[in-house]
Amino acid sequence: TPGGWTSNLTSWGKRERVQEEKKRERERERETGGEGEFSFGSHFFPSISSSSSDDDEESMSEGEMAALKEEVEEKKKLIATLRNKPWRMQRRLIQLKEAQEFVEKFEGALGKGKGRKWYAYKVMMTKKLIKFKRDFENFKTACIPWERKIKEVESHFGSSVASYFIFLRWMYGLNLVLFGFMFGLVVLPEILMGLPYGSLPRKTVPREEQATAMDYAVLFDFNGYCKYSFLFYGFYNSDRMIGVLKFRLPLSYLLVGVGIFGYSLMVVIRTMARNANEGGDGAEEGQFTFSWKMFTSWDYLIGNPETADNKYASITTSFKESIVDEQENQKDENIHLRRFLRVLANFLILCSLGGSGFLIYFVVKRSQDFAERDNDELSWFEKNEVEFVMSLLGLVCPPLFETIAELEDYHPRIALKWQLGRIFALFLGNLYTFLFALFDEVTAKLEKEKSIKNETIWALNAYYANYSSFYNTTDVPPPDVHPADVIRGPCWETGVGIEFVKLIVSDMQVTYLTILIGDFVRAVIVRFLNYCWCWDLEAGFPSYGEFDISGNVLGLIFNQGMIWMGAFYAPGLVGLNVLRLLTSMYYQCWAVMSCNVPHERVFKASRSNNFYMGLLLLVLFLSLLPVVYTIMTLPPSFDCGPFSGQEKMYDVVMETIENDLPSFIGNIFTYATNPGLIMPAVLLMVLAIYYLNAVSKGYQQANLDLKRKMQMARDEEKNRRNNKDSTNQVMKDLEALLPNKSLIPPPTEEDELESSKSPKIKPGAVANGKGVNLQKEVSLAASNPRGPVTRAPGPRGGNARGPQPGPEKGRGRSSNPPLKL
């Protein structure tokens, strides 16, 4: 009743005034400092004077000291947990200020007297340790490369664009570690302990190439002195041990080449596992859709008004899409026409993919014909035709796929996945077509190498025979031939490495020119010609460019795939890629901040991290196949590289086991490589993967069941508080089986009063502390206060309905006055 509520409000106001008076009294007592008494909690202690005293031990008793220490610890705990309190911000600030003042004022008193200086010392060291940890965390954050630059991009363009630069920084760190392995274990030992330039034919420019070995056009094609340098495979010596340290360079080259893949695989899988643990929005798909969108859609790192407007429009669009999704599913359309258009679109895209693959195969075959001709007869385009065509396909095909995809009329999210998959298939098909054509060239070079090797052996045998017959001696010295005049093979490994390096460099050039012309020049035209043009250039065509996140990430992934494949044939390629990523970070950050505008729809980046990592893992696996095929199948060149003189590249491992390790290790390795042992091991791993997959599915099902039970428990608790019927379908079915529901006695007013005075029970728990058994304890919910219907309804009218039957009054109709707070 109004009177009851008025009395409640009056008593509540009195209580608040009493609390305010007590608070002011405590503040006055604390402000007096050393005069009078200070109080905290329910304890009162004599004042602590600031003047010096001869005996500090008599200032407070042991009980007072213990109580003071306990109160200080409680204030510290309050400061630490204040963020989790369900209070208003004003109350939090007041409590925080009071707690900090109390701790600073009375914590020093605990350091006075015998045995208390140790406590004061511990408090001081704890504060210093906390400050050191905070400063060290700030130092670690400051040491993260390009953190401020990425945060600036994130504040203007949201976390979606910043995810590309975070991924670029991650790739830079990975390549920096790979460069450390390659440079420290392969390049540096060869430079420091190997033979110098000009000592061997593999380290010397041929005589016929020395005249043009330093020309810019030759060096730009990575021929001349670049070809016979430490950048490529052919430069490295094949001696088992080099230098004073007896460093095994061929073994190190092979182990580093394979270890790069192992380390990259470990890092990628570990990153995917960490993203999987950190990811997820905490709810199942389709549950609380609008609540999650309402409270978690905003990107609080946005600091640009234009980006904020775009994000606002994006959230609004997502709400509209969620509302319209069901209507779209029920919309009548010509499904046969839609299927025909989608089949047509996929057919056109497959034709584009096939055409791009055939074009690459054609130009690679044509480049093999150009390689047999003189370089002076070739133009610049003919020399760089392969790299130019592959880069051009990477620029033209993705927009073409996007145009063809308009025929399919997919949902934008599904269309984005199809677009990414098609671009992935384009890059992958182009890369493997390039490899197949390249290995055809390798096969031709191997045939040529065999003929050169046979001619060399025949010439040496003829020299030995002629020398021994002319001088009549068997002690024949080696032929005195300058390394530049020695006949040498084509060294197919160096040729493959040169193709990969040229491909990386051309891709970098095309990317930078595209940003400069497609973004910068376009932005300049829109910015300065908009005032004197016929239409609004900013709102219409051409407008400012948007940062293509998916295209840039996919380009970065396939660039890394080429690095993984080419690093075995060109050890200097990893260092070249480190420089490329370093310049890309600064160049693209400048371009995105000065030339691009935020996307119309700003997506959160957390949902796509593992998708990109999954693509990177797939590219890593596909990059491993050509290298393994080279190591296990193809014979190495006979006159260049660390494996020259071996039948297969992996023979250096067997040679090391036989010559440098004990015999039992060789036996163990022989048994381990036995197919009879490998097949059961593979079968065991497959069974283990199947078992772990089954266990994982069982855990997922258990999580779903627990979520369902928690939801049921919350519903039961909510209905218990609201005094409604149970929502548990099992209990509803059991109640429906009762013979006569009217026999259930309604609760009396005394029962309701006792239930209102009973202590509150947490959701999902009972009074005895045990968990809720949903099949047995759902009867905790109160019954419906409405009584059973015992008569037919009367005619409609003013007082025809009358009071409801049953002794209870219903909700809000109790005759008892409300309880005073």
UniProtKB/TrEMBL annotation:
- Give me the stretches of Basic and acidic residues compositional bias: 13-33
* Domain (TMC) ranges: 491-606
- InterPro entries recorded: TMC (IPR038900), TMC_dom (IPR012496)
**Pfam (any one):** TMC
Q: Name one GO cellular component term.
A: plasma membrane
Transmembrane stretches, start-end? 170-195, 216-236, 251-269, 343-364, 419-439, 562-583, 611-632, 668-692
Q: How does it sit in the membrane?
A: Multi-pass membrane protein
Q: Could you tell me the keywords of this UniProt record?
A: Membrane, Transmembrane, Transmembrane helix
Amino acid composition bias (Low complexity), ranges on this chain: 37-52
Name the domain of life: Eukaryota
Enumerate the subcellular locations listed in this protein's record, separating them with semicolons: Membrane
Annotated region Disordered: the residues are: 1-64, 736-821
One GO process term, biological-process aspect: vestibular reflex
Q: Which GO terms describe its molecular function?
A: mechanosensitive monoatomic ion channel activity
Polar residues composition-biased segments: 1-11
The similarity comment for this entry is: Belongs to the TMC family.
Spell out the protein name for this chain.
Transmembrane channel-like protein
Q: Which organism is it from?
A: Sphaeramia orbicularis
